[in-house]
Design brief:
It is built from 6 helices and 7 strands, in the order H-E-H-E-H-E-E-H-E-H-E-E-H. The protein is α/β, with parallel strands linked by helices and about 170 residues long.
C-alpha cells in the first residue's frame, strides 16, 4: 500500500518530520493504553512522523508527550473553539468548534491511523479512516473491525504505519 496522492511529500518536509499520522484514543485511558501511547509517540517521532490527534487528555496527551520528548511535532484538532483546551504537549492547536464532527478531520489528516483503546469516538475515527482508504491498526480495541490490523506493541504499530507508506514516511 502506498500513500494517497495528496500525501506525497518530498524533500525537507520528510526530513523535518511533518508526515502526519493520526492517533485516536480515549481521554480516559487505562495505564496500559497510556504507556502504549507514550512509547508510540516517541517511536513515531523518531521514525520521522508527526502526530495528529484530538488534542485532549488520556491517549492523546500521552502520544503527544512521547512525540514531543523525542523531538517530534504534535497537532491537536480540538472539538471546541478555544485553543487553550489542548493538552500541554500539543504544539499546534486547531480549534474547530465542531464537537465530535472533528473526528473526521483527525481521521483524514494522517497517512494512517493508530487506534489505542477508546470507545465510540475512536470507533468513528477508525471508520472514517477506513472509508477513506487509510491504513488502520489498533491496540486494545477495534482490531476485530474488518480492515483493521492488530498492533500488540508500539513497535508493531510503527512498522505497520511505515509499511503502509512504502517503507518510509511518504
Amino acid at each position: 500500500m502506498s500513500c494517497p496522492e495528496h500525501f506525497r511529500i518530498s524533500g525537507d518536509s520528510v526530513r523535518s518530520g511533518f508526515i502526519p499520522v493520526s492517533v485516536a484514543g480515549s481521554s480516559a485511558a487505562s495505564p496500559r493504553e497510556t504507556e502504549f501511547a507514550l512509547r508510540l509517540g516517541g517511536l513515531l517521532a523518531r521514525a520521522g512522523f508527526s502526530i495528529v490527534c484530538g488534542g485532549g487528555g488520556g491517549v492523546m496527551e500521552a502520544v503527544c508527550r512521547g512525540a514531543l520528548e523525542a523531538g517530534g511535532t504534535t497537532i491537536g484538532i480540538l472539538p471546541g473553539s478555544d485553543p487553550a483546551e489542548a493538552n500541554r504537549f500539543v504544539q499546534i492547536a486547531i480549534p474547530t468548534g465542531m464537537g465530535s464532527a472533528r473526528n473526521r478531520i483527525v481521521a483524514l489528516a494522517g497517512t494512517a491511523l493508530v487506534a489505542v483503546g477508546g470507545r465510540y469516538g475512536t470507533l468513528s475515527e477508525v471508520a472514517f479512516a477506513l472509508d477513506a482508504g487509510r491504513p488502520v491498526c489498533a491496540f486494545g480495541s477495534w482490531a476485530s473491525v474488518p480492515g483493521v490490523t492488530e498492533a500488540g506493541t508500539p513497535e508493531e504499530a510503527v512498522q505497520f504505519v511505515t509499511r503502509g507508506s512504502g517503507g518510509r514516511p511518504c
